[in-house]
Amino acid sequence: MTTRCTAARAADRSPCTGPATVTIQDRRGAALTGCELHAAHLVAARPDVQIVALPGAPADTVRVIVAAGAQMRR
Ligand SMILES: [Zn+2]
Question: Count of domains in the chain?
């Protein structure tokens, strides 16, 4: 199995869509780094997380992930 970002959950078998572009921080301060897909999954499951773009990530990364997460919740 290929290495996946730390935001990918064990129950979710999907591969990463690309390199990790964001840090996802939950209320307890735990930080995960995630690719767009897995970060969006986390946003969908836990709307209270904070997303911060990693250096070098595309400017609209956070917006794209939040929008994708909102779509998954529907
Ligand atoms: Zn991933």
Answer: 1
Contact yes or no for 49/14 (Cβ under 8 A): no
Ligand 1 centroid distance, CA of 51 (Å): 14
Q: What is the pLDDT of residues 33-60, one digit of tens each?
A: 999 999 999 999 988 899 999 999 999 9
Query: Is the confidence at residue 73, as pLDDT, over 90?
Result: no
Residues with CB under 5 A from ligand 1 (ion): 4-5, 8, 16, 35, 38
Identify the domain containing residue 28 by its residue range: 22-73
pLDDT at 1: 52
Q: Which DSSP helix (H) or strand (E) runs through 24?
A: strand 22-25
Tell me the CA–centroid distance for residue 25 and ligand 1, in Å.
15
